[in-house]
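[job 4417] fold queue: 2 targets
>>> target A
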Amino acid sequence: MVMAFVFGIIHAFMPGHGKSILVSYHLGRRSRLVEGITTGVLLASTHVGIAIVFVLAGVAVISRSLAAGGRAPAFQALSAALIGLLGAYLLLRTLWPPLHRHVRDGRMLAIATGLVPCPLTTFILTYALARGKLAMGMAAVGGMLAGVIFTICSFAVAAIVTRQRFLALIGPHRRVTAYAWWWLELFGALGVLALGLAMLTST
């Protein structure tokens, strides 16, 4: 379990896993640290959880929507489209702010990003099932998930702290701070939108 946890931390540092999307979002939105942790947990849990469901349901064997290596092109395209739509929504909300702000869009974005199943989880569980050691495979996946959560939450929290410190450096000037808030929100929304479109064109 300890080895799986450490491996999960390292694995989540590799490209993918939605880190850039969460960082773009939290750099562009006023968030508390608990919201960064929440979005990180939701993203990682969805990413690994949907792969577990696939394997346990036997989709990895019987469905044509799954390609080799545990990839799911249909879900990748759906995830990319949802990320792009949420990025467009964040952009519109920045340009035409509503009267009341909601924090649920970050959670929706985290779940949409996590819709891409984790190929490594699929491989581990498929191998465990073939060897008749499902419990051991689930334990390994559980340890890995904890490591992935740790890494992704660290990126989200780091983005929130960076934003807070940047705004603190600006000083008490309300007008300057208001402009900084707006530009950070704008670039954060554009970042999410661009990442979603890039994912969509690459699927």
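>>> target B
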Amino acid sequence: MAQVVGELEIRMFAELARLRSDMEKANSIVTKSARGIEKSISFANRALGALGISLGAAAFFKFAKDTINAADRLNDLSKVTRLTVETLSGLDNAARQSGSNLDGVAKSINKLAENMGKDADAFRRLGITAKDPLEAFKQLSDIFVSLEDDQQRSAVMARALGKSWQEAAPLLSE
């Protein structure tokens, strides 16, 4: 019993350390973004100042608030998906470029991990062997691209990602 409690305590400390590390990374990203925003606004003000126009403080604060909210959203998704903020930031960019959105992709990655947990053998037979959810999603993407029969593709994706597989389809096809 004492060994189990000790192991749980060690796991809790490890998870706490990981959470602290992720929070520090998120804070670093926000700080770097804020510096970049300040530089951009300063440049824009100089350029617009030459034209006799200035950027209002309200617009600056709204922009800064939106940036902080976006960082908060990434941090919340990180807790749900167990992917780092940096990974989610890259996924967000890839999702937008493919015509998808990060929330749909994160939901799909979680659903894939859940379904793999229910029937790992079926996913191994498909060719999805990765334990890491993002790597498994990449392997699923390879399968998505390789399946030429639309009905078969739909069936496999519905089995892997559930009803909302179409939200991730644009990114899977990339």
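[job 4417] complete. Note on B: Residues 2-50 form the longest helix (49 residues).
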